[in-house]
Structure prediction request, 90 residues.
Amino acid sequence: MIARPSYLIYQLFNIIMLIMLIRVLLSWIPNFNWYKEPWYSVRKFTDYIFEPFRKVIPPIGMLDISPIFAFIALSLAQRFLCSLLAGLGL
Prediction:
């Protein structure tokens, strides 16, 4: 059986958010080497997602809260796209 496009989009967003979570958790490790693969790719990929939020939301002290807003935005986009596709019968 072939999976519905709405399910595939839903899972794609879940994978992206998992990669974002890995990035956030690894950022708590001091002196973590981001220049080794696969961590360099994880960092570059998530920078594309976090950077627009970082431009709008300044850090609070040394705490960067832009990933929180990125998670919220992706979650809302996921729900919107999946419900739209499901409404179209896809």
In short: The radius of gyration is 16 Å. Residues 10-87 form one domain. The longest helix spans residues 5-27.
